[in-house]
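Below sits the subject:
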Amino acid sequence: MKTKQELLKLYNSDLNELLKEAQKYTFKEFEFCSLISARTGKCSQDCKYCAQSTKYNTNIETNPLLDIETVIKSAKESKEAGAINFAIVTSGKTPDEAKDFNEMLNMIREIDALGLKSCASIGILNKEQAIELKKAGLNRFHHNINTCKSYHNEICTTHSYQDRINTCNIVKEAGIELCCGVIIGMGETVEQRIEMALELAQIAPDSIPVNILTPIKGTPFESYGDKIDEENIIRTIAIFKIANPKSSIRLAGGKKARLKEKTVELLMKYCVDSAIVGNYLTTTGYSANEDNEKVLKAGKTVKH
């Protein structure tokens, strides 16, 4: 594993050389996943970037857990669009806050029956919940660290960085694949982006989604649109690939809102192995056809 000093030197090196170094580790096949916001809003946590927190007035549409028919319809559409992973995503600190965990387990069983790899992003877990998810057939669990340990308290105060690490460990112990990433552009320094890369390397997730902050009116970060520019986004993602050569680097939220199409294609060519296709939680993305075209332009094939 490279040291912080080595990664920082690479971060500040010639951009073309940095991209060529990252390209050594990129996968030839590109993977698409999709998600549905199965429960939206009314979250008790105070994450400063998030439109779903009850602490902020963002005027988003909220809904309790969707019925299973709606979720499975979305899963079928995602499969037809080329996704091989499908995630149910719910707001809230833990999956049992709304007492609908058993219904989530049923959704996972139905997603598996479609021939899709099931994924869930449902908050902080305990060991018993992880075991139940594994029994239901869950393939992958998504739980971001969001930022590095040294910056976490600037992002959220209602749960700790260690709470997130504990969930990651519980997921891996249960034999479930782990998807764990970050949001960049929240005011962190370059050094803290390097810290993120190294902390992710310690966690060793199967997939690392990289989100770029899309400032949402009403949140404390509504004016944070200038905290990171395109070149630094490229440099950060390249460093994540170099520091995590065995993990799939997944381009996630913010790719349409914050990046030029040419930049997305460049990232797909040099340092990104996968992407979320379609829309995200409270922001929109490219269509499946648009993303497929970018992958082909990048000289990669789509994994089926």
The domain at 4-147+156-298 is CATH 3.20.20.70 (TIM Barrel). The first strand starts at residue 29 and ends at 39. The radius of gyration is 18 Å. Residues 279-283 have pLDDT under 50 and may be disordered.
